Amino acid sequence: PKTYPLANTGAQMILSPQGFIRPLLARPGSPFGPRFHPILKYWRPHNGNDWGAACGVPLYAAQSGTVVKAGWQGGFGNYVIIDHGVIGGKSVMTGYAHQQKMVVRAGQRVEMGQHIGYVGTTGLSTGCHLHLQVYENGTPVDPMRYIP
User: Fold this and answer.
1) For residues 20 and 8, what is the distance between their CA atoms, to the nearest angstrom?
2) Which domain holds residue 48?
């Protein structure tokens, strides 16, 4: 498989057929789809994947794009959204929730593999993890369609 270097780490990340990398050195956990919310205690859509990792683990842009949000967003806590433009005829954005600290700002251009923040547990969260979202034309889809 094709690989891509991760910023300032020496690590090589596998590149998906759509041209995305994993946003951290971890494995996905809680999948996309309906689930019983561990805090709210009722069934609701889980519109992303959770990636368990220690607080403070660096997060990286899964693809190049422009940061359209970097700030607090309710249950997502510290949240970064990156607009990747049109891919395969669809507008694609990624969202990175619950960050301990964000190191990018809205309007900033980022490159794939660039450091964007740190794993945290801000917002509606039971522990340190990344909640990763992918949006196609504004609608959440399973991130594993894009992330290797």
Assistant:
1) 18
2) 3-145
